Amino acid sequence: MRLDVQRSLKKRKQTATKKTEASKSPAGRPELSRLLGLVEEAIPAKRYTEAKKRLEEAGKTYPIAPSSPEAYRYHYLRGWVFFWQGNQLSAWEETDQALRIFGRVHRLPLLPQPENLPNFVAKNLKQLRAIEVALLEGLEGHNLDEDGRKRAVLERRIFEISASLKNLNPLAKLHQLAGSILRHLGKPAEALEHLEWAATAFRLSRDWGSLAETLNGISMVHLSRGELPLAIQILEQARNYSLKAKNHYFELVLRSNVAVCQLLAGSWRPLLTSLPDILAAAKKSNDFPRYATALLLSGHTYLLQGRLKESRKAFTEAQSICTEKKLIGLSKYCHGYLADLEMAEGRLGEAEGHLKKVLEISQQVSPQGEPVAEAWQKLGEVYVARKEYDRAVKTFALCREHLSKWPEKLVEGALYRGMGVCHVGMEQLRPAQNDFKKAVDIFESCGNEWELAKTVVIAAEQGAFALAEIQPKIIRAREIFKKLEQPSWRKRAQALLEHFDSVRTNTPLRQTHELIEKEKISQALAEAGGSISLAAKKLGLLRQTLQYKIKRYQIEV
Length: 557
Prior knowledge:
With 557 residues, this protein is mainly α. The protein has helices at 2-24, 28-42, 48-61, 69-85, 88-106, 117-137, 144-166, 168-184, 188-205, 208-224, 228-244, 248-264, 269-284, 288-305, 308-324, 328-344, 348-365, 372-385, 389-405, 409-425, 429-446, 449-461, 467-483, 487-501, 509-527, 532-539, 543-553.
């Protein structure tokens, strides 16, 4: 038995040795290089399935020696394939390994900071020119041996500097991919470091297409921080570089990203205008991730307009593409958007199921990344809608914990707004006021009028502020909704102002809240045909509690 095991181990060792020798042999190395070259051609052409198949073939047939040029290419390309699928954890493992191997292969020193990179290159170029001049002038006055030795040293130095400059662009591509992955993993500071380094290197090497892609990644980091004007400014710069590179397809993608920023600010029309072009171009180029993303944005735009059937159709098509093409990471966004739709239709159980799916997929591919915080925040809103306030508070706490690691300003503002509604439901008016004020401050700091106006209307509907304090803000909110072409929200603001006209403006906070609550109870009773049980269920109250409030407010049943 022991001899059999030994023979088996020996046989495996011999097989592995043969494969390693094959990869090192003149026949093996060109074939491996050819396969990797085919992968490098497939990725820009969006043929990701083919790229994955070629990489699997390369890995199985030719064991790749560590610290070889093929090794860093192999791991870099694998990182790209995992990134395309949305598996950010695996993508980072491969890209991090590629960065380490690259440094060992080319014996690169520690890289300077992005702001010092131009000086680093200029200094080396200056030194390179000086060495070249010395070689051209010749080394007069020295014997042949000494001249030969000096010449060899100088030539080696030229080779080292040339190699470091030549390797600047492929190294920048590694940093670009690393930054993109880290952004999805919820590490914006580290992502920016890599992306800014890559952007500086691409400017120096005049690679305008790669520079446009890198600036797009930088803008997305600022977008997550709620810095919409800055994100749009960087995207416009990226568009110029994309046109300079004559990459009209990516310029179209960037134009749609500008429209996404505008959508987050409540302006849906620019996105609706640009989406048909990006959908057609993405489909034509077989860019399935972009096509599915454009469908999700279409569905979200329809949702804002109240066109729910068209919204579901777009979301469902995007989900089927993600399933067919195994786009794991993008599928979590599908579930997030579907949760929004279910909440709009009042199907809270289905919304909860989709949000839990978002968290489940995120745990596999990017536990701290997008859109985990938003999923917790929306899940809290589901529990608030069900009047499950204790559960909502716990869920919002999980969201806040996540945001402490990776701040997302728009999600943070929505979190405090949800907490405000939750505290009103628990009849804790002072905490509710504090939460709404924090939400307003966050949206004002981001310059996001759309979210700010929504927050003001929701706070007023909940009776969280005295009329004298909230009325001027409601008037401003109404004008914002008019400008952004949001008729349903404008009607809500108008209804509040009409209600305020019927009562005294100087009504104190507690009385304002009671007036709002009395109106809600009267409306629920009317809709329930006077049935206290049905009205209590609709309001999320116990029957005894509702009877007490009816008696207290002297409401006729």
